[in-house]
Amino acid sequence: MEPFHTYEGKVAILDRADIDTDQIIPKQFLKSIERSGFGKNLFHDWRFLDGDVTQPNPEFTLNQSKSQGAGILLTGENFGCGSSREHAPWALRDYGFRVILAPSFADIFYGNAVKNGILPIRLPEKELLLIKEKILSDEIEELSVDLRAQTIQLKHPTLTHKEEYRFEIESFIKESLIKGLDEIGLSLKKEKIISSFEEKYFRAFPYIIPSERIL
After folding, report:
1. β-pair partners for 119
2. What is the pLDDT confidence band of residue 133, given thresholds at 50, 70 and 90?
């Protein structure tokens, strides 16, 4: 998993609550267990007017020029509710999103996002509204997110003062993202201990032979 330290980028605003995983990546596109290739179908039913992804919906935020190249998504409460499909953060990450700002997230989605290198940030609705208004009025162009400092800084060439917001995050999740460690990576940190245990175990119980040793 790619480590996350800081990220600076444009913001796409998807001002809806209770966006479920079937809207993030509809079920008909869950045809692979690879993590890539899902971005083109992200928010498919909202982004396109046809099933062949040839007619973009001009009213949808990701199809508007202001959102092109955005790596930060600002959205509503309970984001990622519904089924537990990991394809949802795969699609968001493949599209290019590294940060999601919302008042709240569905628990399973939150965990899946972190495991795929996406930083989900919970902010009070009042603060999100202020950020959204500044983006829509062109007072700011980008946000700068610093995970170590746990800050979000508003950026615009004409801003003469520093304006930022702080966010809270669990220390374990913060460390995992900074070091780029998912659950497999965390387990492999103890590879020597695991190997030592296996050797002792199979010496003590030689009649238990794992399939890979037979091969």
Report:
1. 99
2. very high
- Residue 68: count other Cβ atoms within 10 Å of its Cβ: 10
Structural contact between residues 83 and 21, judged by C-beta atoms closer than 8 angstroms: yes
Distance CA 196, CA 202 (A): 10
Nearest to 5 by CA among 133, 186, 180, 208: 180
Instruction: Please answer whether residues 26 and 53 qualify as being in contact, where contact means their C-beta atoms are separated by less than 8 angstroms.
Output: no
Question: How far is residue 19's CA from residue 13's CA, in Å, rounded to a whole number?
Answer: 13
CA distance 90 to 73: 15
Tokens 């009042």: give the residue. Answer: 126
CB within 8 A of 185, min separation 6: which ones? Answer: 1, 179
Please give the Cα distance from 76 to 103 (Å, whole number): 6
Whether the per-residue pLDDT at 204 is higher than 60: the answer is: yes
Residue 214 confidence (pLDDT) above 50: no
Alpha helices in 100-190 (DSSP H): 107-115, 125-136, 171-179, 183-188
Beta bridge partners of 145: 7, 152
3-state secondary structure of 105: strand
If DSSP codes are grouped into helix, strand and coil, which group holds residue 169? coil
What is the spatial distance between Cα 90 and Cα 95, in angstroms, rounded to a whole number?
8
Domains contained in the chain, CATH given: 6-181 (3.20.19.10), 183-215 (no CATH)
